[in-house]
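Table 4 source record.
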Amino acid sequence: MAELNSGRYFKKELVPLKVVTVGVDKNPVTTMGGLKILPEISVDECMVESTDVIVLPGGNTWIEEINEPILKKVSKSLKEGTVVAAICGSTVGPAKMGLLDSRSHTSNNLEYLKMVCPNYIGEKYYKMEPVVTDGNLITASGIAPLEFAMHVLKALDVFAPETLHSWFNLYQTHEPKYFFELINSFK
């Protein structure tokens, strides 16, 4: 999110993107880790455009009824061309809505998806990969947050290819040479 909000490595002609937190309502949401997030807007106030991206954070509540309004918005937005990115337990939400039944995708585990989402029938499209992008749908295992971020950045097309490559290599390898490669990539 920092890269989207700051725009520090964006292509020269682009401005930073506004990151907006959305909830079922505006009441605080407590994450599995105990972090309290205050949604800026409710899902009813959320007007999604095809140039936006919806990022569903991981968690173990996506099967719960309370998330139905968000998942309906996700389903509609995905059909309209908006990039939807789901990681870890949030892949259950799109699975529950049938959005993974005919598209390549991944999650934490195929058996996990089948267990928590009995109506899921997308097994033949499941890929044993850390991250899968199929058109405007990005799904990832919870153990691949860096790769997930790279796929989201690539889908948004906000980094030049060499900048994205350097950024990814820096965070993946921790080698200083990629920091300098990153800095030089957008001069």
